[in-house]
Every structure is written in structure tokens, then in C-alpha cells.
Amino acid sequence: MPDVSQQVGAFSTESQSGAAQGPLSGVVIADFTRILAGPYCTMLLADMGATVIKVEAPAGDDSRTWIPPERDGVSTYYLAVNRNKHSIVLDLREPEDLATAHELVGQADVFVENFKPGGLSRYGLDAETTTNKHPQLIHTSITGFGSGGGKDMPGYDLLVQGLSGLMSVTGSPERQPQRAGVAMFDVITGLHAATGILAALHERSLSGGGQHLKLDLLSSALSGLVNQTAGYAACGNVPQRLGNDHPSLYPYGPFPTADKELIICAGNDRQFSRLAEALGFGWAAEDPRFSSMEARNQHRETLRELLVESLAQQPADHWFEVLQGQGIPCAPILNIGEGVQFAERLGLNPVVPAGSAEETVPTIKHPVSFSRTPAHYTKAPPRLGADGEEVRQWLRARSTAPAQDASR
User: Fold this and answer.
1) Alpha-carbon distance 99 to 319, whole Å?
2) Most buried pick, 37, 58, 159, 396, via CB within 10 A?
3) Any idea what DSSP says for residue 238?
């Protein structure tokens, strides 16, 4: 496996400048993924300093064409998950390109792909072949429904939202099941993949061996549904749609005020007591119907009437200020733009420029703040094949360089 601290060619400037010296500096990732789950995973790793080489078919990542919205003719869907990467176009049906793909995998620490199960066998890039040929390689496969009975099912997030049960518990009970407003299981699977890769890299540093990681959207979805799926596994409970209500907590959701809705979250008895006092019915904290979470759940409608009557006396902004001052969790419902602006007001600096000069693209920052080795944003999401020649030059240099110690 390569030692990227001694890279030559395409990435030497980046390494020497220290711009990419994050916690994963020295790790090379061959990224054969597209759309969302895989690219999100590899972008997070790239932000942390890994050298990610994005391999695309001649037509490019599907998400490049998912417009609107767009920025300068490029889909913002693609821009969202592909910064800090180097793009090379390879047609695996062409012998020369396939040879380049094999070279790249041979130089990588991690190979991430989301081909259909069995789809890489014809190219000799399946997990069994790559891990036998490169014993230290961490081959990461992302599928929709695994490699067994679901191997032929296409892995679209919306299908998983339906099949996992998420849609059955999302939306109003009087209306049809509802999808989430984002491809959340693609994102969760990407996070799980990144976590697994980090664990495998650590284990390799102890054992010296790589391994095959397998992830699928449905398994990630069932894990990500946490209390809902756990309730079924533990006691056979099948939850139903409750709109914006929580199945186990009350009050916990949006409530109308004099002008618009305000989210209120009373997660324990102390918070409810402060809420009741602030809204003018402090006696309710001692009332047996409301004095415990179980009791409040049993008497939701009666308590809802008290809440709505009190909240109707003032607008949402008034109550937000009052309840926040009492340490009661609450929040207005904002749109996406307002949400980003709110984070800015809190000093979270959610928008960061990726790249430099005319290629700079505003992006949403990496979610982890490191005290010594911060995430970097040195490279804008690449144009299709923008780094092809540099990647080939780097591979040629690696093939002629003295052998590196692979025991690291």
C-alpha cells in the first residue's frame, strides 16, 4: 500500500503545502461510487485529509444532471457531496482504462464502490479478487438491499423509505404515508460506511490486514429508525403515524400560537413543570393526569387544550424568547435558508468556500470540528475528468518509485 506522505506528481503540492494534512492524511481512497451514499462517505473522508480519487464513467456521476437547482450549470446535488476529490474518467469496458482502474485499486488503502452485487466480477474488481490480490485493501461495498435475496433490487433511497417502514410513521394519520424531505437513508448509510472504514483502518494498523465491508441501505435504515424498530424487535410494537407527535413524549412537537406554530419539547417532568409555570397553569405539574410522562401521554388531548389556549395569547417569537429564557426547549419552524442563517447567527459558520479563485463553490462545512487537524476545503467539486492526466501521472510515478514499507 502507498505511503502518501511521499507522494509525487498530482498531489505533491497539496501534501507539501500542508493544506490536506488532516487526521486522514496519508490515506488513499479509490472512489467508484456515484449519486449520494458513497460520495457523501468519501467526501467526509476527503475533508479529513484523505486523498480521494473519484472514478466516473464517461457519462459522469448521475447526480451531475439532477437539475434544478444548479450553480453555473452544475447540479447542486453533485456539488453537495464531491468537494476535495480528484476526478478521472474510466470506461471499464476499455482494456487500457480497466488496467488503470486496477492500478488505482492497487495503490489505494480503501476501495469504495456501489455497483450492483456481482457487477464488478466481470472486471476482476469484486471484493474476493481485490482482497486476495491486495491483502491490506479495505474493500467497501454499498448496495441497496444486500447481496442475497435483494441483490437485484435497485438501491434508491425512496424505495428504502417505503420498505423500511419510515413512510408508515411519517405524516398525518389522516393522510397517506409521507417520505422524508431528504434522502436520509443514503446519508445514514454514508455515515455508517465512513465509520466502518475508520474502524477497519484502525484494525489494520494493529493486524496489518484489510477486509471487506458490506453495507446496504435497508440495514442502515432499520438501524437509523432506532426506537421505532427496537420497539418492534423487543415487544412486537408496530407504530403508526402520529403526525408531528412523538410516540413516547408529550408535549413534544409544534403547537399553534397567536400567529404561527412553535415547537415545544418537554423531555422530562422538570421541563414540563417549568413549561406549565411559564404558560400560566403551573398547577398542572402536580395534577395526576400530567405529573409524569406516562400520564401526559395518556391525557394528551386534555393537555393539548391547555397548551393551545395559553399559547394563543402571544405570537411565536414572544413565546420563543420567554420559554428559551426558562430553559425550555423550543424553536420556530424555519425554511432551509432561514435555518442556515440561524446557524450563522449562532456563530456556527455553516457555509464554507471549497476551492480557490474562480472555481470556489460555497458548500456546507464538515460537521466535525477538530482542535488540531481541522477539515480542509482546498478543492472544489471537480469537473468531469478534470484530474485524469494528473492521476495517471501519479500512478506512473508510483509504479516506478522504490517499494514502500507496506506494514504501516
Assistant:
1) 64
2) 37
3) -
Contact 364, 350 (CB under 8 A): yes
User: What's the pLDDT band for 367 if we cut at 50, 70, 90?
Assistant: very high
Please determine, for residue 7, whether its predicted confidence score (pLDDT) is greater than 60.
no
The pairing of beta strand 351-354 with beta strand 361-364: antiparallel
Q: Which of 157, 186, 245, 387 is catalytic?
A: 186
**234-246 burial: b if 16+ Cβ within 10 Å, else e:** eeeeebebeeebe
Q: What percent of the chain has pLDDT over 90?
A: 91
pLDDT of amino acid 107: 97
Cβ–Cβ < 8 Å for 247, 297: no
Helix (H, G, I), strand (E, B) or coil at 258: coil
| pLDDT tens, position by position, 56-96 | 999 999 999 999 999 999 999 999 999 999 999 999 999 99
Q: Structural domain boundaries of the chain?
A: 4-225+349-400, 261-332
Question: Which letter does DSSP use for residue 215 in this model?
Answer: E
Q: All 3 cell numbers of residue 264?
A: 415545544
Name 397's bridge partners: none
Q: How far apart are CA 85 and CA 379, in angstroms?
A: 7
User: How many residues are there in the chain?
Assistant: 408
Is residue 154 within 8 Å of 217, Cβ to Cβ? no
- Compute the chain's Rg from CA coordinates: 25
Domain 4-225+349-400 in CATH 3.40.50.10540: yes
pLDDT of 11: 56
pTM: 0.91
Annotated active-site residue 317? The verdict is no
**pLDDT tens, position by position, 109-139:** 999 999 999 999 999 999 999 999 999 999 9
One-character DSSP codes across 98-135: HHHHHHHHHH-SEEEE-PPTTTTGGGT-SHHHHHHHST
pLDDT at 2: 41
**In this structure, CATH architecture of domain 261-332:** 2-Layer Sandwich (3.30)
